[in-house]
UniProtKB/TrEMBL annotation:
Pfam family, one: Beta-lactamase
Keyword Nucleus among record annotations: no
Organism: Bacillus thuringiensis
Protein name in the entry: Serine hydrolase
Record keywords, A-Z: Hydrolase, Plasmid
Keyword field contains Hydrolase: yes
GO MF annotation, one: hydrolase activity
Domain Beta-lactamase-related: 16-373
SUPFAM superfamilies assigned: beta-lactamase/transpeptidase-like
Length: 384
């Protein structure tokens, strides 16, 4: 445990070495990495470039395209509505989206609940996880929420509903576009746009002034890079990159961040700073403003039983992020119960409730900053 000044000094030295090495070896271009212990900052690093070509240095308030870092924010907003009795975890989503009734391969239309969406057990997937060349989602023209599709959210959900479910809801787990559907549900329930809902319930109360669906200050947003050999390449207008070999790959169109007409993707559409997101995580870990204790306990309880999580060995899923079950299987020094997720544009974060530790590391380099060796080395350095 980090209990003494010398422990924290040792941590700072180790983490500095990891970050400096990753930048020197061209693994990442730039990063903002923040660590809190028991509610107090014990480490802040702002390193490398926000824009390599323009030699613009990274700043503490640099804005990042959040990608899946959006998910816990939208999930928390849904849980605020649960706490207010506006929605229920086990309510069928047809209560708000009557036309969203995707079928199983058998032709049956099973009930999908809000809990299924929060836990990625709804039977949905992502187009980027389909086999190389595409599958039902590509055929239907479904947007994963990171491209300039030109679609409305209503049209995207219509297309998504036309594709078959992978399995009966609640019987399996697959990382998915479910939080985009969740965003549509809570918007209907709240009777306002998702942008307004998030601003009213989450970002304004927590003073997350640099976090939103629309980029607040275009001068502060980082340039995007893609891990390549020998050095990361600057993303063009459109890049397709595989998270897993043999899959269709994510369609990255960084300009989506500036398109005010783009539909608000609850799973990947927000932009923000590392500091804002750390404050959000700290509120979930130890605050009492957003959610009552019973809801907070439900968030961090494994909801998926013994279902395996592809890409996340040793972990289960709570209401918005993974929960560590078996550190040995996960090959990590994190404590049992640690929350973790990431973002495809190059972000990783975790909260270790036992150690009262909150870590946010945003980079502008996909996928190294999300799940590359940098994230492994960073975690090892933190725990010593």
């Amino acid at each position: 445990m980090l209990t003494r000044d010398k422990d924290i000094a040792g941590l700072s030295k180790r983490v500095d070495e990891v970050i400096n090495k990753a930048i020197e070896n061209n693994k990442i271009i730039g990063t903002v990495t923040l660590i809190c212990k028991d509610g107090n900052f014990i480490y802040k690093s702002v390193a490398g470039y926000a824009d390599r070509e323009d030699k613009t240095k990274m700043e503490l308030d640099s804005i990042f395209r959040l990608a899946s870092v959006t998910k816990p924010i939208v999930s928390a907003a849904a849980l605020v509505l649960v706490s207010k009795k506006i929605i229920g975890l086990d309510d069928p989503i047809t209560k708000w989206l009557p036309d969203f009734q995707p079928r199983l391969m058998s032709g049956n239309k099973p009930s999908i609940t809000i809990r299924h969406l929060l836990t990625h057990t709804a039977g949905l997937t992502y187009g980027f996880l389909e086999p190389e060349g595409g599958g039902a989602y590509k055929k239907a023209g479904v947007s994963d929420g990171m491209d300039l599709s030109g679609l409305s959210l209503k049209e995207n959900l219509k297309r998504l509903s036309s594709a078959p479910l992978l399995y009966k809801p609640g019987t399996n787990w697959c990382y998915s576009i479910a939080v985009d559907v969740l965003g549509a549900v809570i918007s209907k329930a709240y009777e306002d746009s998702l942008q307004t809902l998030i601003k009213t319930l989450i970002t304004d109360p927590l003073k997350m002034t640099n976090t939103s669906f629309d980029v607040i200050d275009k001068q502060k947003i980082v340039a995007q890079y893609l891990s390549c050999s020998p050095i990361p390449k600057r993303m063009g207008d459109k890049e397709v990159a595989q998270v897993f070999e043999g899959t269709a790959g994510i369609v990255f169109e960084p300009a989506r961040a500036f398109d005010t007409s783009a539909f608000p993707s609850g799973g990947s559409g927000m932009n923000g700073t590392a500091e804002d997101f750390l404050y959000f995580l700290e509120e979930l870990r130890s605050g009492d403003f957003l959610l009552p204790k019973d809801i907070k306990n439900e968030i961090t309880k494994i909801q998926t039983g013994n279902l395996p999580l592809t890409g996340w060995p040793g972990r289960g899923f709570g209401l918005g992020f993974t929960i560590l079950k078996d550190p040995k299987e996960a090959n990590t020094k994190e404590s049992i119960g640690t929350w973790r997720l990431g973002g495809a544009y190059g972000h990783s974060w975790f909260v270790d409730p036992i150690e009262k530790l909150t870590v946010v590391s945003f980079t502008n380099t996909a996928f190294e900053g999300m799940d590359g060796q940098f994230t492994v080395d960073l975690t090892d350095a933190i725990y010593g």
